[in-house]
Amino acid sequence: MFQSVIDQIFQSKQKPNFIITACVLLFVFTNVVLDYSFTLFQNSAFYISESLLFSSYWVLFLPLLIVVLKWIRKTENLTVRILVISAAILLHLFSYPILVWIISKAFYDHTFSYWQTFNFGLSAYFIKTVIIYGFSLMVFILWNRKSESLQLIEKIDEQRKGQNFIRSILISDPHNKKLLLEAAEILYFEANSPYINIYHSSKKYLHTQTLRALETQLDEKQFVRIHKSHIVNISKISSIQSRQNGDYDVTLCEDTILRVSRNYAKNFKSKFSEHNQLTLK
């Protein structure tokens, strides 16, 4: 669940900024509510203007976190990333009283002194600040590892797709003689657990492999799964007939008729149409 949240946060370049902004607004709102609740408990006066002023501490996370994320993206060195986070924490702590001083100087009757606000921020927000920046770094590292893993998997898949498919299959005849069958000459494969039957243009052979394993080795542009028990050579199909229930019958060049299951019909029609450059309804 935690990993899925990380993926959602970093799914695009715009989402992190949106999430940070939403969190900042939530923190400001929560801070004001807590201030109000505290005054009710203490039976004292509540001034929303002052509450908003001191809640500006959370607003500083908006620019600083965005900048921090950009910086830690530029390096893979953990020490440098920790230094960046540490610098952000210090900058946050020292910038907060400046922000309060400027705002109170411009809009309030009373100007809050720098060191008074600094001591307040240090006592009230220091631990929270370390946790938030540290958590942000941890989230980024976990997401970055997941992203690198996905890229590696995609690269491996692309390399596998770029590999040559088997062009021939080595089998043994009843006399234990080794034969090399050209894949292009094979009509279809049939499951015969724990083996498979290979229907060649000349005769039928038994092969010690599963249909599922063989399917990953065949050229998907030439061979297509039409049923849980059959893989057919598209180039050997001479005609197709709909059964009007989602299934189809395909007739091969030597008059063998095989059923296309509705579960495989969509993929079959797509591959057949692509192979023959026509539209199959």
Automatic annotation (TrEMBL):
Residue ranges annotated as transmembrane are 18-38, 44-68, 80-103, 123-143
Signal peptide as annotated in the record: none
Its keywords, alphabetically, are: Membrane, Transmembrane, Transmembrane helix
Which InterPro entries does the protein's record reference? Answer: LytR-like (IPR046947), LytTR_DNA-bd_dom (IPR007492)
| Domain of life the protein comes from | Bacteria
Q: What is this protein called?
A: LytTR family transcriptional regulator
* Record domain HTH LytTR-type: where: 180-274
KW Transmembrane (keyword) present: yes
Matches recorded under PROSITE patterns: HTH_LYTTR
One Pfam family this chain carries?
A: LytTR
